[in-house]
Design a protein that fits this description.
Elements lengths: L18 E2 L16 H10 L5 E3 L4 E8 L2 E11 L4 H14 L4 E6 L7 H4 L4 E12 L11 E5 L5 H14 L8 H8 L4 E8 L2 E11 L2 E9 L8 H15 L4 E7 L3 H10 L2 E2 L5 E7 L5 H5 L3
Parallel strand pairs: 4-5, 10-11
Antiparallel strand pairs: 1-2, 2-3, 3-4, 5-13, 6-11, 6-12, 6-13, 7-8, 8-9, 9-10
Length: about 300
């Protein structure tokens, strides 16, 4: 992971203006349409003690689990003009109090200065870069020994297997848990496929299909079978699966630090689309535990 920063220590200066957001405060907020009062109430019930607001200005930060992982907090919505720094600092404090490991926020404008996050004690953790490829009508020529098995939303054993492959294949921040897969498989347009070789699972991929294009959400090969060309074959199968459903172009994303995946996508023919890149900023709630989570010695 590119950068890490502990939340600021010492006096909690943010508490002078920032308060923890509770259900009784919702009516005072000026909520946009997609964050109506009922959805905010459900969020506070499910993930309490982390969202914050400034009563004097009605600024707020809504905090939700990152990818359905309760140990990683995520700034789902931030409305702040005068007290952005105080809101973010206070949110980190609340997340630490709740036992979370990390609080992060997504910055979609990759050209914006990181200073506003740095002043709040956050630092860039990852830069996510994007790719796209146009696909024709001819299938990718893949090996005959690979077999695809569709994962259904009610197949408990298959979902558990995909979850174990995912967690073995991705770094800590990017792993999906079972709860995330349950939600993902219920999402319109999503397909998840196990990849088998000689009857044994060796990887999987997940895609989301839209009218005439698709997004490759996940592609993984189990660590002990990597380095044998299975990544390229699995990528080809994923692109073919989307082509068969009418996709004429495919997009995907990866981390800038993941040179291995970038080489794979570029070898296949994917081209960079930097206008869609974004960054993750965050702060570790308990920095002394960071090394163990990331497998750093």
């Amino acid at each position: 992971m590119a950068g890490v920063l502990a939340p600021p220590r010492g006096a909690r200066v943010s508490t002078s203006v920032v308060r923890t957001l509770g259900p009784g405060d919702i009516a005072a907020l000026r909520l946009p349409g997609r964050h109506g009062a009922e959805s905010v109430r459900r969020l506070l019930d499910r993930y309490p003690g982390r969202s914050v607001w400034v009563p004097s200005t009605l600024e707020y930060a809504l905090i939700s689990p990152w990818r359905n992982r309760s140990e990683i907090a995520h700034v789902e919505n931030l409305v702040a003009v005068r007290h952005l720094e105080e809101l973010l600092r206070a949110a980190v404090e609340r997340c630490a109090d709740q036992g979370d490991e990390l609080m992060l926020t997504v910055e979609l404008d990759s050209q914006r200065s990181p200073a506003r996050y740095e002043r709040a004690g956050l630092e860039m953790l990852e830069e996510v870069i994007t790719y796209e490829i146009g696909i024709g009508r001819e299938p990718w020529s893949s090996s005959d020994y690979l077999r695809l098995v569709r994962v259904d939303a009610d197949d408990e054993a298959a979902i558990d297997l995909v979850t174990s492959i995912d967690q073995a294949s991705f770094p800590w921040l990017w792993r999906n848990n079972r709860a995330e897969f349950d939600v993902y498989l219920q999402t319109p347009g999503v397909e998840v496929w196990l990849v088998e070789a000689d009857g044994e699972p060796v990887g999987y991929f997940g895609v989301t299909l839209f009218p005439d294009w698709g997004h490759l959400d996940r592609v993984a090969v189990i660590p002990e079978r990597q380095g044998r060309g299975l990544g390229l074959e699995t990528l080809g199968l994923a692109v073919d699966a989307m082509r068969k459903q009418g996709a004429r172009r495919v997009g995907l994303s990866t981390q800038r630090t993941n040179r291995r995946s970038q080489r794979l996508y570029e070898r296949f023919g994917f081209q960079r689309t930097p206008e869609h890149d974004y960054r993750l900023f965050g702060a570790w709630c308990h920095p002394e535990r960071r090394a163990g989570l990331l497998g750093v010695r």
